[in-house]
Amino acid sequence: MELIGKANRAISAMEDVDKPKEVKVLMAFKTWNQAILLTLNSREAVDWIKEPANKTTFASAFSEGSHIRERVYNLVVLRVPVILDPKIDEHLQEIEEINGLDKHTLSKVKWIKPIRRR
Predict the structure, then answer these.
(1) What span, in angstroms and rounded, lies between the C-alpha atoms of 53 and 58?
(2) pLDDT per position as a tens digit, 47-90
(3) With CB atoms counted within 10 Å of each terminal CB, which end of the chain scores lower, N or C?
(4) Position 115 pLDDT exceeds 90
(5) Would you call 44 exposed, middle or buried from its count of C-beta atoms within 10 A (0-12, 13-18, 19+)?
C-alpha cells in the first residue's frame, strides 16, 4: 500500500496538458530482484506515462535514481522458417507486420538450436 500511495502522489504532482483525466496506480508488486511492477487503471494512463518526458518526471518523483522499463516476455516459437536471420531488422519488422504487432515490439530474437541442428 505504501508503494501505491507513493506512486499516486508522484503522478498527482505531475502537471501535463495531455494528462488523462484520471491516472491512478491500482497495484504494486515488488519482484525478487527488487524491481517494482505497477498496474495502472487504464491503457491511456500507461501510454501517457511511457512518454519520454513523463517517464523521467515520474521516475525522479517516485524515487531518486529509479527508471521506467517496459516488461519483456520470452516466447518460444515453433516451426519458424530457417531463412529467418535475427540480425536483419527487416525480418523482425516483417514478423511484427504479419502478426499485427506494433513497431519495435520484438526487442530481441535468437535461435535456440545451433545452425547444424535446424
Answers:
(1) 9
(2) 999 999 999 999 999 988 888 888 888 888 888 888 889 889 89
(3) N
(4) no
(5) middle
Query: Would you list the domain boundaries of the chain?
Result: 2-62, 72-118
Residue 3 CB burial class (10 angstroms; 0-12, 13-18, ≥19): middle
Dig out the grid coordinates for 86 from the structure.
535475427
Asked whether 107 and 72 are in contact (CB, 8 A), the reply is yes
DSSP assigned state of 113: S
Give the pLDDT of residue 15: 86
**Contacts with 100 (C-beta within 8 Å, 6 or more apart), sequence order:** none
Amino acid present at 26? L
In this predicted structure, what is the pLDDT of residue 54? Answer: 92
Joined grid coordinates for residue 77 = 516459437
pTM of this structure: 0.64
